[in-house]
């Protein structure tokens, strides 16, 4: 703890950049020596006036506040000197000296981690692809890494959660500052099964100048980066550029030539990125390196899946026809009730599949689609719990979101 406060003092000095921190550490070796260095020693380095003044400020108020905030929020702190610090990040030209970590600890050097990135304003095709790849990568054993912004980040995360895998989200602000605010409950889900990571202490607002440094960590933690949909400029391409500089693999989803949001991914394919149409296309690149994590769980190619589903459906139809021949027609009054194609959840399975709040919400949505506010009014459940439950129900495929932020039940509860 004594050494940690010096790391926090150094990295929270106003104006200090990761590059300057590393430069000072190369000379002084430890943050504690930097703290106790003479003022004249700071003049030996190419520091701005602001950076020198901040190093001359020996107040420990900032580090103490950061430590208190982390303890209150359940946030762990990892420094460059820690044994668990990812070697993948150590190899970067400017690794973050400190990481703030909320959630599970991952040994990234032993994880087949794949970053999924894309535009914040995707087409419907882009949304489908991001969720599909998130789900397939997750089911195939990969650790999905993304931001948590609106658009394709959120779609990929929801797909991975639906696939039952862990997710890591890199933030451009404190782990307690989620933007957009609508994703705060999604962030809670990520922290519950994965982790939220940032090089900025709690309380730090997301700023434009933080995204480029954030992106280098996002790609640096991963084996490869998948671009789902993007323009030829912007944050996604910056992340891809970081990946190329770091020697990471780059994958891209092809898109329609008349879709401006596919300009970037199509260009990447032209320039040598691997064109991918399924999660398997990515996973097969790493099967030899991670046989225990990937091979057993790797998804079948889509064509094989379709063939097997077709064979299964035909077998079921044949079996049903045989049964119909053997039994006499039932009176109309005894015919089973039709339920508009929705899955009927048997009474005995309801408690094991859903929480009490989720069951109330499904019941409220069975008659007609409702907005979140209408669900709150009908169920009398607190709004924050309704929003969290709606997210998890979508992940489970029990509820879908319609245009206009209205929600519809995809299952029906047996009475």
Rg = 25 Å
Estimated helix fraction: 40-55%
- Indicate the CATH topology of the largest domain: Rossmann fold
Main beta sheet: strand number and arrangement? Answer: 9 strands, mixed
**How many helices does DSSP assign?**
20
What CATH architecture label of the largest domain applies? 3-Layer(aba) Sandwich
Q: Strands of the biggest beta sheet: in what spatial order?
A: 1-2-6-5-4-3-7-8-9
* Structural class determined from secondary elements: alpha/beta
* Residue fraction in strands: 5-15%
Classified by CATH, the class of the largest domain is Alpha Beta
Domain module count: 3
Shape: globular
Low-confidence stretches: 296-309, 326-339
> How would you state the average pLDDT, rounded?
86
Number of strands: 14
CA(first)-CA(last) distance: 57 Å
Nutshell version of this structure?
By secondary structure, this protein is an alpha/beta fold. The chain has helices spanning 2-11, 18-28, 31-35, 39-42, 49-56, 61-73, 87-90, 124-139, 152-162, 184-193, 208-220, 235-245, 263-270, 279-283, 291-295, 302-326, 347-353, 356-365, 372-379, 383-395, and strands at 76-79, 98-103, 113-117, 143-146, 167-170, 195-198, 224-227, 249-252, 274-275, 343-345, 370-371, 399-402, 406-409, 411-413. It contains 20 helices and 14 strands.
């Amino acid at each position: 703890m004594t050494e940690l406060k010096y790391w926090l003092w150094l990295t929270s000095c106003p104006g200090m950049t990761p590059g300057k921190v590393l430069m000072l550490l190369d000379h002084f070796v430890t943050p504690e020596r930097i703290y106790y260095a003479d003022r004249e020693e700071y003049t030996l380095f190419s520091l701005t006036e602001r950076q020198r003044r901040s190093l001359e400020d020996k107040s420990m108020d900032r580090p103490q506040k950061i430590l208190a905030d982390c303890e209150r929020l359940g946030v762990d702190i990892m420094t460059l000197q820690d044994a668990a610090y990812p070697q993948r990040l150590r190899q970067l030209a400017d690794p973050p000296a400190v990481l703030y970590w909320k959630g599970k600890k991952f040994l990234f050097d032993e994880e087949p981690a794949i970053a999924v990135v894309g535009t914040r304003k995707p087409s419907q095709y882009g949304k489908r692809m991001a969720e599909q790849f998130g789900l397939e990568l997750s089911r195939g054993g990969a650790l999905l890494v993304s931001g948590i912004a609106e658009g394709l980040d959120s779609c990929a995360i929801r797909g991975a959660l639906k696939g039952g895998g862990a997710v890591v989200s890199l933030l451009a602000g404190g782990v307690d500052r989620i933007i957009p605010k609508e994703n705060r409950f999604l962030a809670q889900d990520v922290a519950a099964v994965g982790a939220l990571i940032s090089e900025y202490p709690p309380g730090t607002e997301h700023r434009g100048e933080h995204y480029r440094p954030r992106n280098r960590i996002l790609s640096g933690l991963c084996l490869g980066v998948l671009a789902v949909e993007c323009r030829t400029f912007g944050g996604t391409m910056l992340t891809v550029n970081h990946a190329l500089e770091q020697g990471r693999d780059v994958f891209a989803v092809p898109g329609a030539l008349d879709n401006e949001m596919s300009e970037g991914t199509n260009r990447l394919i032209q320039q040598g990125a691997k064109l991918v149409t399924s999660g398997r296309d990515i996973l097969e690149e790493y099967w030899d390196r991670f046989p225990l994590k990937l091979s057993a769980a790797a998804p079948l190619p889509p064509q094989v899946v379709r063939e097997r589903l077709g064979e299964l459906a035909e077998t079921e139809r044949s079996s049903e026809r045989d049964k119909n021949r053997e039994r006499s027609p039932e009176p109309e009054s005894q015919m089973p009730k039709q339920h508009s194609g929705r899955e009927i959840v048997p009474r005995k399975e309801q408690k094991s599949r859903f929480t009490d709040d989720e069951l109330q919400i499904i019941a409220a949505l069975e008659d007609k689609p409702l907005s979140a506010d209408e669900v709150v009014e009908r169920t009398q459940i607190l709004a924050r719990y309704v929003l969290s439950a709606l997210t998890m129900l979508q992940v489970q495929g029990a509820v879908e979101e319609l245009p206009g932020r209205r929600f519809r039940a995809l299952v029906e509860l047996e009475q």
